[in-house]
TrEMBL record:
<dbReference type="InterPro" id="IPR029063">
    <property type="entry name" value="SAM-dependent_MTases_sf"/>
</dbReference>
<dbReference type="Pfam" id="PF11899">
    <property type="entry name" value="DUF3419"/>
</dbReference>
<protein>
    <recommendedName>
        <fullName>Betaine lipid synthase</fullName>
    </recommendedName>
</protein>
<dbReference type="Pfam" id="PF13489">
    <property type="entry name" value="Methyltransf_23"/>
</dbReference>
<dbReference type="InterPro" id="IPR021829">
    <property type="entry name" value="DUF3419"/>
</dbReference>
Amino acid sequence: MGAGGDGSVTRKAADKKKSLSIEKVPVLTSVKDDLTVLRYMWFGKPSGSDHAARLESFYGPQAKAYDKFRANFLWGRKPMLAACAARLKGRKNLVWVDLGGGTGENVDMMSKFIPLENFKAVYVVDLCHSLCEVSRQKVKSKGWKNVHVVEGDACAFRPPEGQATLITFSYSLTMIPPFHQVVDQAESYLSGDGYMGVTDFFVSGRFDLPLRQMPWHRRFFWRSIFDIDNIDIGPERRAYLETKLERVYERNSEGSIPYVPYLRAPYYIWIGQKHTDGHATHDVKVERPPLFPPTFLYTQSWEDPEPDMKVMDINPSDTVLTLTSGGCNALNLLVNGAGKVVSVDCNPAQSSLLELKKVAIQQLDHADVWKLFGEGRHPQAAEIFEDKLAPFLSETAYSFWSKRLWYFQQGLYYQGGMGKLCWVLQIIFRMLGLGKTMERLTSAPTIEEQRKVWDSNHLVHFIKHGPKPLVHIFRKIVTFALFNRAVLWFGGGVPMKQLALILADNISVDTYIARTLDGVAENSCLRHHNYFYYNCLMGKFLPDNCPTYLTATGFQSLKAGKVDSLVVSTNFFLDELRSRIYTKVILMDHVDWLDLGKAQELATALREQVAPGGIVIWRSASLNPPYASLIRTAGFEIRRVSSAEAGYMDRVNMYSSFFVAQRKPLNGAAAAVGKKQ
């Protein structure tokens, strides 16, 4: 029995050893293949009498290991294909020409985004015999009936159908010396509704677009490295593409190189189409202002849109300028019928948040948009982002969100300055034994029930009715710990100039905050009608208590085309104000942030850029903001619509006053001048 047991153990040990040795074989083979590829990349020298021979000498020895190694090196392939596929979504009988398609790996990748049955024909064109052989084997093993491998010169190829819906160069354009000729040939058979997708390594020109620009030492280093392998990554190819086609999408990035630490090779993704009546645009490189956090301050807009709609008379003829903040109110303007909305913010993170919301509405269904921005969590956020959202985001927005997709795992509404403040406050409430009170407040079915919960809380009762000296000390301690100047700025977005306005009204910070919270608790039902504070306390919205863009009807109206009229701009407010004429302008609390000199400059610009009869609204932390007279003098009739003197102004209740101003009609002389202009 004992001997049998020992034998069994011995056999198991032998089997385990054998299994481990078998597992090591593929690993060793893989490393050997990778080293072979690296040897030819770094030390191989292409040779031969013509370009085909040079390609064969370079790629032939590494053809079988090509796909595996390039999967961790050619970082632009997948997002380029995803961006092309997203623009061809729902179309049938497509013709795709993959120039320099090599092993046909792009076809396999594309099948993850578009069913290959949607293609009438796919042509993988390459001049290298060894790579074409790998491609033919792949086509046969995969059973692709509509995929054709063409061993030949891309400069001479033309699809039998006469036109192609999609043409791609995946890390191949830099390998084609007569690039003018191949681009001309490809452009000649690109259909009018088709796209050309390009991804490749690059260096910028000495003077280039801001998001392409590189310092001289990077340009010199990378161009020299690739030149060893007869690969020209200079800016000329992309520049020529843009003389032939209109750019519709671009991303510039960098990716790691296997077995080469620290170095990250620059690459770009570019998609173009036949020239239309429009013109190509490019991202403007915008740095976040000093003292701003590296992310957004607000995840939602902290201005109640209901009073705004009552005084603004929004209609399809309106061009509205608003500050972005969380972007909810910009979308609400479109839901309520604005013809065009320009949403501006100097913080690129706020613009990236609104841009993501806009693209999500355009590309996703309501269920996914609700998970992302209603619940603030989505288990498939990364996949949805790469496949459906990234292809339509600006480079700035892509760069921001690609590093922060974990926001949708931890909860979007606990991120950013105010999100972190809400998270900390929730923890403190629970530590103080207010967890159940918080739950009861957010689930109270009526305002009467909510008042009972609020007024019966021991801490609220103490603050309202306790001994004044003790209450005073308690409030000062809480203000110092939770609402000091640093927290007010990084958590609440309250700058020092706005804080000075509060204090100028002879009201302390603790009294101001107490008035805000007590006014909301006593007058606005969190569960059914106040999504602002419900979100703060619960970290999400509810289907019947959310911003209008998240409601089923609001979402559908935006997706039907209204959201296309949203312009998201990262800029200073005054610069965007001067760029066009507006019928409506929403200043939010922006002027509270300015000194009187800048406020005068803004008032003058409002006079010049707001159409006669146009409406301007703003909120202020001051009951009587000193700049109101400047706007009046600039040619506006102004009135204070409401104030927080009675303790409650609107569902947010964070401001002291709400103003509306209307641009006075031009007088006769001015009107005559205006007509001549």
